[in-house]
TrEMBL record:
Pfam family, one: Aldedh
Family: Belongs to the aldehyde dehydrogenase family.
Active site per UniProt: 249
Protein name: 5-carboxymethyl-2-hydroxymuconate semialdehyde dehydrogenase
Length: 480
């Protein structure tokens, strides 16, 4: 059994209550370890460690902070294989994906913010005619909470922690209880990199116990959260009366809008990826595909043919394209949408069934599924499924597709496929989304603002936006 411990004040601890949760391997359905279900007391200990570390960490020179973050980045790189294996085992994603994307990106997050903090600056405003100058002091907030989901475990965990630490805060962090292993391994890497004790504390457990204790803590002054919209709304309700700073990155139901004038082959290959990468469990996946009428029938045939070629298999096999879904309850939820689609009059063009992988019969595998829908208002087109299911439907005009694209409660990202510049400019400005990709998908530059509108969240991560979130601006006005 691979048991996990809390990382508090640089040491590894069992939960005070000795309460544990089973950790499942989604590729075979077996329990392979135990996770602390940390209580308020564990969170309090993490808070106390963070609070004691804060005066010294917040005064560390930028050069020294940067040096430590870069060492953590190198440590992650040095443990690439071990971390990728752990991520794949915990989450069910193909190990090739964890090796190529998840773990390298976790390392980049620390490298990026280790460098960014040396370039971060604040404004000054000269008050002409008043003999005064104002300058903005950007000060770390204190102890902050970072809570992350299971789909990109170390990738999203470090996306929050790295800027929080770079800005001089101390952190109490909780990964998803569904995928805690790489966050646990990060603790040792941080110690090896020389991160002072208490600067980062990682507590494991259920959202409703451990997560709740973090968001309720009166002295944890800011919460950076990525997860579902309902959880985000709950966090806002708890945290708002305490006037905590909040960054909420929530769900999505992103349109993939395809015009007949696009580069067809590039669009086709990328659309397969944007539909099914990570078993469709990426908040940015383009799960609603709208295709211009003129190429709809051709697209339908070509897309389905390509999707049928995707191999569902054990995450450790190098030929696997689609691994296991993250958990049994999640598999059941995703599957339920196939029934809903049928009841709503949708046509399953391919997929729709569970897959039995030989030797791993109890794993959580599902065929990549394409559903043709006749209305954009059906539930499968409106609700976040977060699995290997996409809908397709045709459209006739730009106005029509814009309306359909915007007629959901979410607004995280959108993808446009067109070579028409004026249309690109028109639609990019009118689509309700925090991120628009044109003729590409998931191309990331870590300096850019990242986040959503409407039910996809509030606030922006990425680049200096994240450093602004994790600092409090104070205006100093000097008369001379
Ligand atoms: P959840 O909202 O269920 O959980 C996210 C995190 O919040 C987990 O660590 C969870 O703990 C914790 N949590 C749950 N309840 C509480 C609570 N009361 N107080 C504090 N913390 C709590 O999301 P999932 O893990 O299921 O992740 C999938 C969701 O994340 C999808 O909706 C997806 O769209 C969204 N997402 C958004 C992204 C974005 O950038 N906008 C990126 C990636 C995912 P535990 O799991 O241990 O119960």
């Amino acid at each position: 059994m691979e048991n996990i411990k809390n990382y508090i004040n640089g040491n590894f601890h069992n939960p005070i209550s000795n309460d544990w949760i089973d950790n499942y391997n989604p590729s075979n359905g077996n329990v392979y370890g135990q996770i602390p279900n940390s209580s308020k007391d564990d969170v309090e200990n993490a808070y106390i460690a963070a609070k004691s570390a804060f005066p010294s960490w917040s005064q560390t020179t930028l050069e020294e902070r940067s040096r430590i973050l870069l060492k953590i980045s190198e440590g992650i790189e040095a443990h690439l294989d071990e971390l990728a294996q752990a991520e794949s085992k915990d989450n069910g994603k193909p190990i090739s994906l964890a090796k190529a994307i998840d773990i390298p990106r976790a390392s980049s997050n620390f490298r990026f913010f280790g460098n960014a903090i040396t370039q971060f600056a604040s404004e000054s405003h000269e008050s002409a005619g008043q003999n005064a100058i104002n300058y903005t002091l950007r000060q770390p907030i204190g102890v902050v909470g970072c809570i992350s989901p299971w789909n990109l475990p170390l990738y999203l965990f470090t996306w929050k922690i790295a800027p929080a630490l770079a800005a001089g805060n101390c952190v109490v962090a909780k990964p998803s209880e569904v995928t805690p292993m790489t966050a646990y391994l990060l603790g040792k890497i941080c110690n090896d990199a020389g991160l002072p004790k208490g600067v980062l504390n990682i507590v494991h457990g259920l959202g409703t116990t451990t997560g709740q204790a973090i968001i309720e803590h009166p002295d944890i002054k800011a919460i950076s959260f990525t997860g579902g919209t309902a959880t985000g709304a709950h966090i806002a309700k708890v945290a708002a009366p305490m006037f905590k700073k909040l960054s909420l990155e929530l769900g999505g139901k992103n349109p993939n809008i395809i015009f007949a004038d696009c580069d067809y082959e590039d669009m086709l290959a990328t659309s397969v990826r944007s539909s099914f990468a990570n078993q469709g469990q990426i908040c940015l996946c383009g799960s609603r595909i709208f295709v211009e009428q003129a190429i709809y029938e051709k697209f339908k045939v070509d897309f389905v043919e390509k999707v049928k070629q995707l191999k569902v298999g054990h995450p450790s096999e190098s030929t696997t394209n689609i691994g296991a879904l993250v958990s049994k309850p999640h598999l059941e939820k995703v599957k339920s949408y196939i029934d809903i689609a049928k009841k709503e009059g949708g046509t399953v063009l391919c997929g729709g069934n569970e897959v039995t992988v030989s030797g791993y019969e109890n794993g959580y595998y599902l065929e990549p599924t394409v559903i043709e829908v006749t209305s954009d208002e059906c539930r499968v087109n409106q609700e976040e499924i977060f699995g290997p299911i996409v809908t397709i439907m045709p459209f006739k005009t730009e106005d029509e597709v814009l309306q359909m694209a915007n007629k959901v409660k979410y607004g995280l990202s959108a993808t446009l496929w067109t070579n028409n510049l004026k249309r690109t400019m028109r639609l990019s400005s009118q689509i309700h989304a925090g991120i628009v990709w044109v003729n590409t998908w998931l191309m990331r530059d870590l300096r850019t603002p990242f986040g959503g509108v409407k039910a996809s969240g509030v606030g922006r991560e990425g680049g200096f936006e994240a450093l602004r979130f994790f600092t409090e601006p104070k205006n100093v006005c000097i008369k001379y």
